[in-house]
Amino acid sequence: MAREQLGVCAEANLHGSYLLLNAHEGHERLLRSKLARLPLLFDRLAEHFSEAQLSGVVAIGSNYWDLLYPGARPVGLSMLPELSAADIELAAVPVDILIQIRSDRLDVNIISCQQVLQMLDSHVEIQDQLQGCRYLDGRNLTGFIDVPWNPKARNRRQVSLIDATEQPVFAGGSYMYLQQLVFDHLSWHQLSLAEQEDIMGYDKVSARPLEEHRILPDSHRLMMQPDLNAPEVLMQNMPSYQVKQQGLIQLAYAASAQALHRQLSYRCGMSAHSSGHDLLLNYHRIELTAAFFAPSISFLELSAKN
């Protein structure tokens, strides 16, 4: 039975660190070996700092997958869907490797990042590092509870992890989109509470859906999850804040590439069923979008032998 990376379905933490790495050409064999050792490193750090609830995810960029693992490719893994919305720019960026580290202690995240980079030293270069944090008990910088429709408990695994009957080689793996969004907080806070709730599609305090007569067809809730009874995507978002720039680090995990494609195209107003793009995107600029696959630990270890 495939062993999934525990960070994919882990519950929310206080701090998130995201290493965006580019691999040096010709280092594929050594990288396969070292990437397979990262889950063990995360386990060791999680045991040492047990109160921090550390978890990690190793994800491979769709553009780099065939070089690193030429023997097999997850069905549907592609760069990003072609979306030609005139007013939405995805800012697609190729990233070879993404390392996601989350815990309840910032110092533990720092130590983990240091040890990851020590292990991968001379094989990669850092393209960027993003830092997220928990804000107001699970809210994003809009002041609203973030993704209240997220699947819970065992449904998290069903939504985000590939079943062995679908793709035996990639069982326990997960497709993932990373997006970095910059928040226009000045414009947002000029809106009234009612205007904000209409854009979001749910109550600011309780996160309950608005009354049916108030729900706009292009509200954020409906654009991100049209069918609340059948979620297809697990979101792992964290606000990010710097004095000059603030926003959201958004990670979407799914058991199929089509589920991520559907959500993104629907949100950008490019689906046949869309009534326009997500209204919340009028207050966020997409700074970066990249597509990845997070293989199971079993796949990482088996591939390291080749």
UniProtKB/TrEMBL annotation:
Its cofactor is heme b. The keyword Metal-binding applies. The lineage of its organism: Bacteria, Pseudomonadati, Pseudomonadota, Gammaproteobacteria, Chromatiales. Residues 48-132 form the Dyp-type peroxidase N-terminal domain. This is Dyp-type peroxidase. Keywords: Iron, Metal-binding, Oxidoreductase, Peroxidase. It comes from the Bacteria. One of its GO terms (molecular function) is peroxidase activity. Belongs to the DyP-type peroxidase family. Residues 138-297 form the Dyp-type peroxidase C-terminal domain. Pfam families: Dyp_perox_C, Dyp_perox_N. The keyword Transferase does not apply. PANTHER family: DEFERROCHELATASE/PEROXIDASE, DYP-TYPE PEROXIDASE FAMILY PROTEIN.
